């Protein structure tokens, strides 16, 4: 039997308001939408009563789910469970019942939660393992841990936990008694990382793996076939809690494949182009951090629900573009979580049924996310251990900014991928990109090897680190660095002298608005430096180089990340074409041509294209790497529920560009197979 892309419908049953009519609607929807698996919520959102007792689970929730599960099983539809509470998302007026009696979180400001459990309290650890053992008695296919299984963003508190129990742990590791205020001040202290920060991150890392391991052992003893899955949110915030992705998923998985739910960053409809950027930094980074030995079920959620919140076409984009993640299925949170059940007026069943064959094809030829072609953007799960803060006032200073190249290149239609850095990483003859303080994760020898053996794309902060380690600046033949803050009446625009782009001579890109600061670099040896663009003042004074290529292999974009706007100034047709020109000079990379907003993910024998705009693309044009030009390709797309195939003839390749006479519709995803 061919592999199937698993449609998992997340579904809320109110055990006090459930009837056969709602059950019939659920079964009808599953049949029409080609649902494979129903993931029943336990104690969700509006029905949430805080941390449930085991008696409440036994008496109310599981008997109702069990009855419906039997009906679904008759249609070969499996059942999974999604308890909505581990630590607790937020207080919402709830309190821990005296019967359970475990302590709650305290954040870095000393604010106490009323219902959010302290992950180091042995009473909670025992409770969460026991209650997951109770859920396992239903023998679910997957049993999920919600994304409240974390140390941050539990409204009303922020980063945690700094309760008395944790302060005792931190004091013991420091070898002296320390107050919360003293410890937090040192944790966030400007400059190089402190012992306090390393202790906090290490404790958080270890205690979550310990809990995960206990839950896994309990569930495996009761239901050996049940797989534990983990829902994740924002990778940079998980870095601020010191998450060890491999260790955590290994602790949960036991003998099974890892089961991961990366976040698809649009609970409400946003601009598809904005979604394109966030898709890279959240969904793709999480998928990379979890690794290839996993089943990936991204989360498609509409909140507050209905087509008033998200159009069906945007829902279709979210679903079909998961092909770029090498996803094996999807979690569909399409209906509310308070017991209304299926709303047939949304017309989701037809949409899901029409996409299913294309999704199945992708699963049968699953992208290996560890063997993708293109620019590798290096990221580290240990970033918050190593980066340097500037003000020392807010945990957000610990957020890594290592994903800027990924969002930019991916959104401009360049084949790229996140690449997890580990102690065993070794790159040679690759195309790599780093931003933010990534280099602070590495020693001098590792940085030197990267720059000497690979084509490298650097940003301004990366160059600054090279200057902070005096012997390294020679790797880019630089002698002086000045940081010119944005909007200070110095730099105004970047000009690409001597070129014509978009039929504009000497085209310009802003350095004034929605941009980072300008890192003005003076180079020692002009013979080794190719300057492609320069900074200018509003009075047309030439100030210094911007885009440069050093020694034919190191490309520098000398800016940092604006706290509010990131790199928005770079999302521009002129800059897109300049970057692709640079790629042509330095490497052999796949990218789309004249298809604004279309993303590409490529492996040796597969290309996925997804149009993240509402505009139709008149034809498909891909600059192919030399190897791919020698291959025969077939294009797969669907018209309604029918999967179509189009053979791609070799003569369609001219000047390294494959042109396919297929109109790629707005928000459409297609697959090319060699």
Plain-language structure description:
The chain folds into three domains: 6-88 and 119-149 and 208-364, Glycosidases (TIM Barrel); 371-586, 3-Layer(aba) Sandwich (Rossmann fold); 591-673, Immunoglobulin-like (Sandwich). By secondary structure, it is an alpha/beta fold. The strands form nine sheets. Strands 13-12-14-15-26-25-22 form a seven-stranded mixed β-sheet, sandwiched between helices.
CATH H-tier superfamily of the largest domain: Glycosidases
Secondary-structure-based class equals alpha/beta
Using the 3D structure, state the CATH architecture of the largest domain.
Answer: Alpha-Beta Barrel
Give the tally of structural domains: 3
Strand % is 15-25%
> Distance N terminus to C terminus?
22 Å
The fold-level CATH name of the largest domain is: TIM Barrel
Helix content: 25-40%
By oligomeric state, this entry counts as: single chain
Average pLDDT number: 97
Tell me the number of helical segments per DSSP (H or I, 4 or more residues long): 17
- Supply Rg: 26 Å
**What is the top-level CATH class of the largest domain?**
Alpha Beta
Strand element count: 35
Low-confidence stretches: none
Largest sheet: 7 strands, mixed
Q: Describe the global form.
A: globular
Strand order of the largest sheet: 13-12-14-15-26-25-22
